[in-house]
Design a protein that fits this description.
The structure holds two protein chains of two kinds. By secondary structure, chain A is α+β, with helices and mostly antiparallel strands. Helix content of chain A is about 35%, strand content about 20%. Among the domains of chain A are: about 110 residues, Immunoglobulin-like; about 100 residues, Cytochrome c-like domain (Cytochrome Bc1 Complex, Chain D, domain 2), CATH 1.10.760.10. Chain B has one domain: Cytochrome c oxidase-like, subunit I domain (Cytochrome C Oxidase, Chain A, Up-down Bundle). In chain B, helix 3 runs antiparallel to helix 17, helix 5 packs parallel to helix 15 and helix 16 runs antiparallel to helix 17. Chain B starts with a helix and ends with a helix. The N terminus of chain B is likely disordered. The chains are: A alpha+beta, B mainly alpha.
Amino acid sequence: MWASLFLLADLPLFPVAASKQADQIDALYWFITIVSAVMTVLIFACIIVFAWKYQRRTHVEPTQIEGSTALELTWSILPFLVMLVMFGWGAQLYFAAQNPPKDAMEVFVTGKQWMWKVQYPNGGSEINALHVPVNQSVKLTMASEDVIHSFSIPAFRVRHDVMPGHYNSLWFTATKPGRYHLFCTEYCGMEHSGMVGWVDVLNERDYANWQAGGGTGSAGSLVEQGRSIFMQNGCSTCHLQDQQGRCPVLRGLYNKPVQLADGRTVTADDAYIRESILDPNAKIAAGFQANIMPVFKGQLTEANVIQLIAYIRSLSPPEPASQQGDQQRPVVIAPTDANGNNSGVSR
Amino acid sequence: MATIAHEIPQVAPQEVNYLNVEHGWKSWLLTTDHKRIAMLYLFSITAMFFVGGAMAVLFRINLLQPEGIFSPETYNRLFSMHGIVMVFLFLVPSIPATLANFLIPIMIGAKDLAFPRINLLSWYLYIGGAALTLYAIFRGGVDTGWTFYAPYSSTYSNSYVLAAAMGIFVAGFSSILTGLNFIVTVHKMRAPGMTWGRLPLFVWSNYATGLIQVLGTPVLAITMLLLAFERIAHVGIFDPNIGGDPILFQHLFWFYSHPAVYIMILPGMGVISEIVSCFSRKRIFGYNFVAFSSMAIAVLSFVVWGHHMFLTGESMYTSVAFSFLSFMVAVPSAIKVFNWTATMYKGSISFDTPMLYVFGFIGLFTIGGLTGLHLATLGTDVATHGTYFIVAHFHYVMVGGMVMAFLGGLHFWWPKMTGRLYPEGWSKFSALIIFIGFNLTFFPQFILGYLGMPRRYQSYPPEFQTLNVLSTSGASILGVGYLIPMIYFVWSWKYGPKAGKNPWGAAGLEWQIQSPPTTFNFDETPTVKEEAYNYGKLEEILG
């Protein structure tokens, strides 16, 4: 007990807020906390007053009261209305958390028992460390190699589970340079509490220095790394230019709707591409046969898949804003004709 | 020789009751008397409570040091087994299998439950489930957490997952049978005049609990079987590497385990309604609303499970719906708290030990319930999920709420169950110790949680040490608080002063029969002519 009193000297009671998200969530947190505190005090005050005023020593004869529908309705409806405010406010923040801004810088994270691997677009990667510039929105796209993990930065008030077999994402805009904890917050086995690291928020100059210093030991950009995996695994023989009409050509594919053999239409996003690499037979594009492409599940790590996706994205140069209406049209990735012309991107 | 015979003291002929009517271990192990089965359950769950508590003491010791004291393997097993034992072998059966088992037939004027032998079977199933779980502990334990999240549990863990999962599977059937027995009993066995509108609220709340047990527990059984199936036969159900989906596990698990939270709190709410009315000498305020709110909780409890999964990547709109429904379920809980408070208004309040537990319950349950708002709100759940904030929240509800209610109920009905009184000074002292110890243990965890300390961490950054030390010192006080009642209850069983029929001046059928009751409770089936909590006729009740 004495030891704990001694330690009270440097006792943190509230976390630093180092992101835009943190300020927004703290405001809601205090709103709920203050409403709760008022309710608690109100109830406690009633109980204490009643217990004192009507104690048996002085108040021998109780008055029997059946109840009051008006009171019941009041204390059901009023608190519910206040709770609706919490609900709406909270839903709004949650929606914002699910929709990263378009200009967000993208970083890839892979969770694995018991470490975080972080991959940057420039090809650099690091373990249990994340470097981000201040005042820049950052979107993390996350995958797990094994069990469920959860990526959490308390100072930013952001967190998302990392489910194996799925891509999950979160985003934040750091506002204060500094070094902050990074935790895994979903129990993932023996060294769960060792699956921690640091997030460094750097100002513009420090960030440029850090990048220039090659602080992460890069070997070509993420796209280049993806390209070499693409070549090594023989993907290029079919997917860049297909002479036999066996498989879709990947140029211009990213983020376009794709018509499937079973009639559905899906978007060729990260999750779809990931699934099509690891388990190609799960969704067959219209006009193609199953069981032609090898299954890469167990052959590639999630980090490799992230590199491949970066490369496949690079095959679709960003379109000018005026053409965005076209994205609504499903792409029929038809086989090339006998002349080798790809007739795919049409309807 | 004649002189020796004379020396045998002349004792007054002892009243025959359910405890002394038969003797010997067979008379207990083969009994179909709901009161004896309740006592068997009471011993069993108390043992489990101390097993689970011992593990809590050990891992709280580990957390005195930022780098931990035990190895991660040991620590992970300690918190996992603590959760499994406390949830499935203590909290779920706690009040229903003991107090409700003992009291429901008496409160409705019946001789026993509808299916006395099924009642005994349910105890044996419980013992079977507990034995399997203890086997898992003694072989080396389980390290999956009580939530058994796949694919960690189904593929990666090298611990005794199967034994523990089967323990839960078997114990689940005991819970189903208890619930089934209560539902049928309340429907079919009520004495003449005991209408639904006259049922004590303790019966209402256990009836609602029974519905959840019968409808929810089979889903847990299915989940555990699928888990075993994947673990043994490697059929891809939850593990994406073999074609499964880990989110499916969470849907199945929480479809039971969220309603299970209400299995763990509704019976406690029933206890509080009984005690607050008795020690205020006042009918319960808004009987219909309190009874109806139990049923509303039972129904709504089945549609809020998705709030455990806001961060798994479930669709935004699913999350919004579950968030909204979670706020809905807060309303009936709030109704109860307001009605208990209003019941005290213009009452004649005494501060006997059971009432002290009511004060403790309302205080802690209010805090536990209101901090649930931070978790039901989508925006703040992001910041608190998976941290000590959640640990504190559910301990305020489960321990601050349910264990307080259980102890309150035990102190209230102990004189009925054993015919003996316990020492009032000691019991008040321990109630106070428990309240202080509890808050010192769990309040710092709210702060720790928002600071970001994740749950289930064997080691942690040094800046969290002070709050962890406070929490551990609270836990040691709490532990002492729980041991004291254990000692004086054992003492009072033999040496406590005789309680008589109705030591508290309480209304209700159970207080009109002798203490302890006879095997069949009533000499003849009573006819009920008045509503519950008729404290308007105080002279009649007090005799």
